[in-house]
Amino acid sequence: MNFNIFLPYLLVAALVTYLIRAVPLVLIKKKIENRFILSFLYYMPYAVLSVMTIPAVFFATNHIVTATAGVAVALILAFFKRDLLTVALGASFAVFVAELIV
Prior knowledge:
Blueprint: H1 3-27, H2 35-58, H3 64-79, H4 84-101
Helix pairs in contact: 3-4
């Protein structure tokens, strides 16, 4: 891509990113005490991460069945409060075995 075409895109992306972070700091002076808004802000990162991750998980393998097996194993391990490394390795191993079977 030509740098003269890329530079305006980069500047707009930087400006939008900066504004999204700076405007709330400028406009909101006092502490937020509304329980609904605090709850919304607390859970928002988890919701966004889930919405971005879950579709990618199901299309990361050759078959949706193997992806489903990996998600199922990950959910089961997470339900039993295993650490993140164990969940990731267990899900990866489940997908590997399912790919060998399929």
